[in-house]
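Aim 2 progress update. The chain analyzed this quarter is reproduced below.
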Amino acid sequence: MASNKRITIGPIGLTTTLTTNIFNPGTTTGGVNCTASPNDKLYVVVPHIMISNNTAGNLTVTLYKGATGANAAGTELMKGVSIAANAVQHYYPGWRFNTVDFLVGGAGSGSTNDLTIEMDAEIGVA
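Predicted structure tokens:
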């Protein structure tokens, strides 16, 4: 059996709008007899996230897993997590995203691109 393919997502500068879509897995297209259900859906597992603060002050990050452009209560993956000035924070969440799942969020303070996110991930076919 083939293993998932390792990919890197980002780096992506975070905005201060907490409804910004950061990431969403796609579907497979093309080919013959291999893109019909259930093999038309990709999934992504995120075992490692790195968030960098490029400023001289502490900033916060909030991330949600949900619908496109949505940040509903109860869907927070990280809420108001502080990232120290001029620092890099590593997280090892193991989150899985299907084609209907969006990673949404941004920086709770600062300016656009003051925080950047990069994710090591594995992509597979459901």
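The chain has one domain: 5-26+41-125. The chain has no helices and nine strands. These observations will guide the mutagenesis experiments scheduled for the next reporting period.
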